[in-house]
Amino acid sequence: MKQQLIFILSMVLSASTAVAQTEPVDSSYANGYYVERMKFFDQLHPAPKPVVFLGNSITEAGPWSEVLPGVNVVNRGISGDNSWGVYNRLPQVIALKPVKIFLLIGVNDLKRGVPVDYIVQNYDRIAAMLKTALPKTTLYLQSVLPVAEPMLANIYAKISNEKIRQLNEGLKQVAKKYYCPFIDLYQEVFVDEKGQMRTSYTTDGLHCKPAGYLAWAAYLKKKKYL
C-alpha cells in the first residue's frame, strides 16, 4: 500500500511539473493590422534586389530611405509583430529576392511574457528558412534594442534590459550557427552608461526618435553593412 501511495504521489508530481513546463504561450500574430499590412505588401512592386528591413513597429517607423539615401530599401515592419508573425510572412519576403535582410524582432514577444528560449527557437526557424531559400542573401541579425525602463508605460512591464540581454546572447548563437553577421545595436549604439536606452534616442523608452534612426543608419554604414 505504501509503495502504491509513493507511486501515485510521484505521478502527480510529474504531472504538475509537466503542466508548469508547458504553460500556454501567446503565439498569436494575425490581428487586423497585421492582415491589412500583409495585403498592402502584396500590392507593392519594389525594385529588384532590394535591401529589406524586417521587424515590428521599430522597423516600420524607420525612415530608411531618408537615412540611407541611395539604398534600395524595402520596409517590411509591422507594428505589434512578433517572432511567430515574422516566420509566417517569410514567403512574402523571400519572393522579393533581396540581396540583404536586416532582421529585428522579439520585444513584443517579451512584452507578452514569452520565455527567451521560445524567441530564440523562432529565430532559429527564421534563419533556417531564409538561409535555405535565399542562399545568396546576407541575413543580418540585429540585436534587440535596450529600453529606458523608467520611461516605460505599464503595458511594457514584462520587458527588462536583463531579459533583452539574455535574448541577445541567444541571438548571437543563432547568428553563429547560420553564419549570419550579428549587429550589436544594443551595446554599440543605443545603450547609455547606466545600461538604459539613451533618452535622446527614444520617445517612450522603447520606440526610436529620429536621432536614434540616424545613429542606427550611421553605424550600419560605418561597419560597411550597407
What this model shows, in words?
This is Platelet activating factor. It comes from Niastella soli. Residues 1-20 form the signal peptide. By secondary structure, the chain is of the alpha/beta class. The chain has one domain: SGNH hydrolase (Rossmann fold). It is built from eleven helices and five strands, in the order ααβααβααβααβαβαα. It has helices spanning 2-21, 32-42, 57-60, 64-67, 83-88, 90-94, 107-111, 116-133, 161-177, 185-190, 210-222; strands spanning 51-55, 73-77, 100-104, 138-142, 182-183. It has a five-stranded parallel sheet. α8 packs parallel to α9. The longest helix has 20 residues, at 2-21. Residues 1-21 have low confidence and may be disordered.
CATH architecture: 3-Layer(aba) Sandwich
CATH homologous superfamily - what is it? SGNH hydrolase
**CATH topology group:** Rossmann fold
Number of strands: 5
Low-confidence blocks of residues: 1-21
Average of pLDDT: 92
The CATH top-level class label? Alpha Beta
Task: Please estimate the helix content.
Answer: 40-55%
Outline: globular
Instruction: Count structural domains.
Output: 1
Strand content: 5-15%
Number of helices: 11
Domain SGNH hydrolase-type esterase: 53-213
Keywords: Signal
Protein name: Platelet activating factor
InterPro entries: Ester_Hydrolysis_Enzymes (IPR051532), SGNH_hydro (IPR013830), SGNH_hydro_sf (IPR036514)
What structural keywords apply?
Rossmann fold, 5 strands, alpha/beta, five-stranded parallel sheet, 11 helices, 10% strand, disordered N terminus, 226 residues
